[in-house]
Every structure is written in C-alpha cells, then in structure tokens.
Automatic annotation (TrEMBL):
InterPro entries: RNAP_P/RPABC4, RPABC4/Spt4. This is Uncharacterized protein. Keywords: Metal-binding, Zinc. It comes from Oribacterium sinus F0268. One of its GO terms (biological process) is DNA-templated transcription. The keyword Metal-binding applies.
Length: 289
C-alpha cells in the first residue's frame, strides 16, 4: 500500500522533482519501493508520464534564457500578402541564404525554393544507430516553413533554450573547450555513421548549451555530400582553436589540435577520449561561470 502521508509530520506529500515525494511543510522526502511500484502499475505509468512532461516543460522553458536580446529586425513579404517580421540577436549571410538567430527559432531565408529543398535533402540523409538515437538531438529540427514573396522560402527550426553559437561564449578555458570538442566529435561520429560530410563546422554553425554541455550543428546543409575526406575533423580542430583561450595546457590538448585526424571519426573520437583521460584526468562535468 502506498502512503502519501509524511512519516515525520503527517502532512500530505507532494510529487517532487527528484523522482519521489516531498513534504511541503517539513521537507522530508519519500520514495517508492520496487514492490510498491509493481503493485501499482497504473500509477507508475502516470508518474513516469508526469516526469516526462515536467522534463519537456523544462527543456522548452525560455524564461531563464536571459542571454538572448533583440539586436535587429528583418521583414519579408509573404506569399499570402502579409509580412513576416523576424526579431533576431544575430544573422549570418551565406550565398543566396540568410540565417537568423531568433529567440525560439533559428530561421533560414532562401532566395530560391530549390535552395531550401537542397538544405532539407542534406538533413534527410542523416541516419542514427538504434543504440544512440539521441544523437538526432544534435541536428536541426524543422518547426515550419513559410512561402515568401518573389519565390523566396523560409525554414524555421527550433532553437532550444540556452543554445547559442559557440563563438558567443568564446574564449573557452581548456576545461570547457574539452566538452565543446567532445560535442563536435559526437556530431562528426553521427556524420560518419551516415557516410556524410557537412563541410561547414565553424564557431557560428556549432550551437552549444553552456548549462547542459549539449551541442547542435546548424550552418549550411545545402552542400552536404558523401564523405570523401576528413574535412569535418579538420574543421573541428580549426573551430576549437578559434574559440580557445589557451590550447597549450594540457600539452595533450595542443598535441591533438595540431595533429592530423585519425582514419575516421570513430578513431578520432578514440584519440580525443585518450586526451580526456590522460590530459584532463577523466570525464568531469565542470560548470561554466
């Protein structure tokens, strides 16, 4: 039988955020045993659904993302006769394409529809191993597309809270540069698995979350091609050096960034993992201040 009463003060327990119950009066915590869960399968399902929903709310909560600020606006006439106005923090110009860093979106405006089609085709070529489907979170997620006037097309992708181009947080101290490199290695491994070459890994196309140490690769997906070189791994090293505060310490970090890539992304990740273990003393989560 599940007890919802606090054993300390007898008050009604409330669902907490750590996977159990918490007393709103004395702060005591309580957790269900396996036996209690097994006897209450329906409640278990509801509890798991509750925590999943709470996690989703937190992931999409922009209220604490105070770094974003409006530094400009751009207006485009839409095919339906109305105007699309974008408020952005930064924008990046590419041939026949502009990328806008908006509050809840990363917005691409293409001069021609076939440019947008090529972009989406590049993304569609990604594939992920069944054992690591979370890698899909490292790549743009389309929210909507809007037909603009004069044959232009707008693609709107999700910008999750706290995700910004790596250049925004530069320069990175070595202990933080380490996780940025790790995320780029993860991304390169996903591209390797898909047998793709992105060709646009830069300090502005790599988005990172300084709180969770996650990464996403935006940039230009129109020229994605079948892998034929280690250009992405070379770009990884170039990008890391461009945002580094100091690449000389530890010595293994500098050695890695000045080295030629290993045979493929999986081997390169192994070489980088050795730097983490021997140069940084293992995998540690170091909060950015």
């Amino acid at each position: 039988m599940i007890s919802y009463r606090c054993k300390q003060c007898g008050a009604q327990l409330e669902l907490g955020s750590a996977g159990g119950f918490q007393c709103p009066y004395c702060g005591a915590r309580a957790f269900m045993s396996d036996a209690e869960f097994k006897g209450n399968q329906e409640f278990r399902k509801k509890l798991l659904a509750y925590y999943k929903a709470k996690a989703g709310e937190k992931e999409n909560d922009y209220s604490g993302d105070t770094l974003w600020e409006e530094l400009g606006t751009a207006t485009y006439p839409m095919a339906n006769g109305k105007n699309l106005t974008l408020s952005y923090m930064d924008r990046y110009h590419y041939p026949e394409m502009v990328c806008y860093l908006c509050r809840e979106s990363v917005v691409y405006v293409f001069d021609r529809e076939d440019g947008a089609n090529a972009f989406m085709l590049g993304l569609s070529r990604l594939s992920f191993p069944e054992a690591d489907v979370k890698l899909s979170r490292c790549f743009p997620m389309l929210k909507s597309k809007i037909a603009l006037d004069a044959g232009k097309l707008c693609l709107i992708f999700t910008r999750k809270p706290y995700f910004y181009p790596a250049e925004v947080f530069a320069p990175f101290a070595s202990e933080h540069l380490a996780w940025v490199i790790s995320r780029m290695e993860n991304i390169c491994c996903a591209l390797e698995y898909s047998e793709l070459q992105h060709g646009d890994i830069t300090a502005s196309s790599l988005f990172v979350n300084s709180l969770t140490h996650e990464g996403m690769l935006f940039g230009d997906w129109r020229n994605v091609e079948r892998k034929h070189s280690n250009q992405d791994l070379l770009d990884l090293r170039k990008t890391a050096k461009s945002v580094a505060e100091n690449i000389h310490s530890p010595a293994l970090l500098e050695e890695f960034l000045l080295s030629e890539p290993e045979g493929d992304a999986f081997q390169d990740f192994g070489a980088w993992d050795k730097v983490i273990e021997e140069g940084f003393g293992g995998h540690r989560f170091v909060k950015m201040k």
